[in-house]
Each structure stands twice: as C-alpha cells, then as structure tokens.
Design goal:
The chain has a seven-stranded mixed β-sheet, with helices on both faces. The chain has a five-stranded mixed β-sheet with strand order 1-11-12-10-9. A two-stranded antiparallel ribbon has the order 13-14. The termini are far apart. The chain is of the alpha/beta class.
C-alpha cells in the first residue's frame, strides 16, 4: 500500500519548537535593529547560496531556517532601521509581522467567494472612504502598490470616457478621438507607464509645468486642455499628486478638482504616501480637495507601516469601478447561498483572481494602534524633516535643493555643480552602514534625498545624520578629520559618537 503524502509536519511538537525559535529570533531582530548597520551588502557566500540547482530532495526545516539566519536575514534592504531615509519605504511593525503570519496560516484566496477575509477588505474600504471624505459606498480593493492602483484608475477613467463596456468590447477606436491625460511634470513614472500599458501611448500624457514649490500650475493645465480640445483630442483624465516622489510636493488638489468638474474629466489622485495625511488633523489641510477626487491610489505599506505589499485603490463610484473589470465566467458563477454567495467579489474590481489576505495586516495595524497614534507618527516624521532642513539651512557646506513640503528633504553640497559630491556621500553612507538616504535628479543635477518616513526615526537620529553628512563630505573632499562619525545606540532616542 502506498504511503499517503502530504506536507504537514510529521512531528507537530518539533515543528512548534522550531517555529517558536524562529519567531523569537525575528522579534530579537526587530528589537535590536539599532545595534546593526543600516545596510550590509550580501556576501559572496550568501550570493553563492542562491546560485544552485533545483533540489529534488528536501532538508530538515531546522537546516532551512539556519540558512535564512545565515544567508538572508543579515542582508536585508534596511528600511526597518531608523537611519534608512531612502525611496519612501515604510518600516513595518512587529504587529504587522504577526498579522502576516496569521494570514499565511489561513491562506485565504481573496479573489472572491463568501468568507470573512472579503468582509475585512470591505471594512478597510469603508474606513478609507470615511477618512478621505468619500461616499460610504465607495469601492476599494487591495493591490500590490500605488503603481498598480494608478494603472487601474486609468482603466476606469478610460472606460468612463468611451462609455459602458464599449472599449472592453471593441478596443481603442481612433475615430472616437485620442484620449489625453494630464499630470504634473513631477508625477511618478508609473503614470506614464500606465498610459503605455493601457494602449493610450505615453506621448498622450501631457506633463504640465510646476511652480517653485513643484506643484502643478493650474493655469498651464487649463491652457493645455483648451489646446488639445481645439486640436480635436479628448481630454479625459487629470492626475493630481499628493506627495510627489522627488520632493513630497502636493498639487493644488482643490483647484484641480474644479478644472476636472468644469471640463467633465476624471480626477484621480496619486497619493502613494501623502493621501494618508488625511488621518492627521494637523496635516489634513495639506490635502484639501482629496475628498473631491473620483479615485485615489495609496499605499498602506508606506506611512502606515503595514508590511509589504499593501497598496489600495479607492473609487468614488462603485458602479464605474465594477464596469471596468467585472466579467462573466462559468467557474465564477454566484449562488444565493453557500461559499459562492455574494454579488460583487474583489475579482470584479481588478484584474487579479488569486489574491492574498492583505487586508488582515492593514486591519490589525489600524485596530491595534488607532488612527490617532498613526497620525502622530506621520506628524513626527514631518518634524524630523523640519529638523534636518533647519540644520541644512544653517550649514556652511550643504544647501536645500527643493522646499520640504512634508517629510522629504532634498539637498546638496554648496558648489557641487555636477552633483558628484552628493553622489559620493550617498554611496559612502550606504557602504559604511551609517545611513541610507537616496539620490534623485533635480533640474538635471543629482541631489541627496532624505525621505523620513520611519516611525523609529527620532531627534537623536537626525542629529546623528548631520554628523554623518559632515564626516562623509570631509572624506569625499579628502579633508582631515578626527572621527568617522559612527553613531552607536545609547538608550532610547539617544546617540553617542565613537572614534573611527
């Protein structure tokens, strides 16, 4: 008789013990993160470990966990560290880590059907509708991130412009008039990519000039729309940005909503991290007009620190949302009762049928911390950005390269006309494991970009960053210095300087 095969542990208690050790190790990893470099490049041995042939035979779970400890865990991106200030990446939380584990244990497929995970996702949509001032029946769905959410928004807007299901049946029709979209020149590149993927063409995205604060110029937008209408084109979409990728600037959303309403166009807001400022009474005025959008794209994995990935797409009109994606299929037939019950499933609101239970980690984060504490963390990030900005403005060596609208500080070295010193400083900080800002290009010149989004980043960390910057600049200029500006943990929120 053939022995049955399954993938459950043969010894549940031994598996429990190994699992508890792994969990304890990860909790220690989070607790002690200040004692480690921000980033450590993967060793040659670690890279070699992941250049092997496909294994036919398995190994003990304990041996696999040991590989994780030795070859994976030490070489992470570093975005959980308080000195990580690059690329607007959320820091996660221990609560979110546990939520991920629980969701993986349930292994729910959230494409549809009648199970509680779908209700949790709908709860998140209702909460976000409340937070953003949308109607209570607004439609929402989890996606991988704002890049995908922006793409979905373009598809909904495109279908609205062409008419009920017409474009889905017949494709793009040139004789109906070329659709034109508008966004600030500061907009994230994913909006351009969305135009490409939707078949509308990147050349039909008009990049509108921005002002000194890097906000879209509304007068230039109106002029561009008028010119396109006169040329026989069909303006259909305005994309406003709440927190631009380079500097964190926020477009004048209320005025953009006025234009969209007057011109009968879809108004979408790319609010990757900035939209969640609506949760803070202090920051909410900065995103005034968000409540008038037809759709919003944002990430829970940024300023709410839900573990990656957890993007979200929210649409004011649930019928328009469903029209863009719902499709009949025999294997997705609905029933009045049982597991197949329900009218609208998540697969009716986006392209994915197989979907993980992303909603659980967002729900547990909000339930555990509440919006008040989460908002206080956002406000703290902005204060830390202001602290760094104030130091730069008083520095003899550094200068601001753009206004700090929220929590992103873009700066450079005085006299560094080609940005070579800025580039060297960033690479140095990374390689020394001291801090991890990123680089961006402003007006054609590299700039140092500190995106302070980590709830663990406190005043002592900002002060440490200033020491790192000064020391890195001296090294880049090959000037003599007394110390290497290595700052080590010395109690909560404090730092101490150690000799190089």
């Amino acid at each position: 008789m053939t022995k049955p095969v399954d993938l459950d542990p043969e010894d549940w208690e031994a598996f429990r013990a190994e699992s508890h050790r792994a969990l304890d190790s990860m909790i220690d990893y989070l607790r002690d993160l200040r004692s480690r470099p921000v980033w450590t490049p993967p060793s040659a041995k670690a890279k070699a470990r992941f250049d092997r042939a496909l294994p036919a035979e398995g190994r003990d779970f304990s041996a696999v966990l040991e590989d994780f400890e030795r070859y994976i865990k030490p070489f992470a991106t570093g975005n959980i560290h308080p000195m990580f200030m690059g690329w607007v990446q959320g820091a996660g939380t221990p609560v979110g880590m546990i939520a991920e584990m629980l969701a993986a244990g349930m292994n729910s497929n959230c494409g549809g059907r009648n199970h509680i995970a779908i209700d949790v996702e709908r709860q998140i949509a209702k909460w976000m509708a409340e937070a953003f001032g949308f109607p209570a029946d607004a439609s929402g769905i989890f996606v991988t991130g704002t890049s995908m959410a922006n793409f979905l928004s373009l598809l909904v807007a495109r279908d609205q412009a062409y008419g009920d299901r017409d474009v889905r049946l017949n494709g793009l029709c040139a004789q109906r008039g070329q659709l034109i979209a508008y966004a600030s020149r500061e907009v994230h590149n994913c909006v351009r990519q969305a135009m490409e993927l939707a078949g509308l063409g990147a050349r039909h995205l008009r990049l509108i000039p921005s002002d000194a604060n890097r906000r879209m110029k509304v007068s230039a937008l109106r002029h561009a729309i008028a010119a396109d209408r006169a040329a026989g084109f069909r303006p259909f979409l305005i994309v406003g940005t709440a927190g631009t990728v380079d500097t964190g600037a926020i477009d004048p959303l209320d005025r953009l909503a006025d234009v969209a309403h007057t011109e009968d166009m879809w108004f979408h807001v790319d609010g990757a991290f900035g939209a969640l400022a609506a949760l803070s009474p202090k920051l909410k005025p900065l995103v005034k007009g968000l409540e008038r959008a037809d759709s919003v794209a944002f990430d829970f994995h940024k300023w709410l620190h839900v573990p990656y990935d957890a993007g979200f797409f929210l649409v004011r009109d649930p019928k328009a949302h469903k029209r863009a994606f719902a499709a009949n299929a025999a294997y997705l037939s609905r029933a009045p009762r049982g597991l197949a019950a329900g009218d609208t499933w998540p697969c009716d609101l986006g392209p994915d049928l197989s979907r993980g239970f992303r909603a659980l980690k967002a729900w547990m984060t909000i339930e555990t911390f509440g919006t008040k504490k989460l908002a206080e963390c956002m406000e703290q990030c902005c204060r830390m950005a202001q602290r760094l900005e104030a130091w730069i403005e008083q520095s003899e060596n550094f200068m601001m390269r753009a206004p700090a609208a929220l929590n992103i500080v873009c700066f450079g070295v005085k006299g560094d006309d080609d940005g070579s010193l800025a580039r060297e400083i960033v690479m140095e900080l990374h390689e020394r494991g001291e801090a991890a800002p990123s680089l961006t290009i402003l007006d054609g010149v590299p700039a140092i970009r500190a995106a302070i989004i980590n709830h663990r980043t406190h005043e002592g960390d900002i002060d440490a960053m200033t020491l790192y910057l000064d020391a890195a600049l001296r090294r880049a200029r090959k000037e003599p210095h007394d110390f290497g500006a290595l700052v080590e943990p010395h109690g909560p929120g404090k730092t101490r300087l150690s000799e190089d």
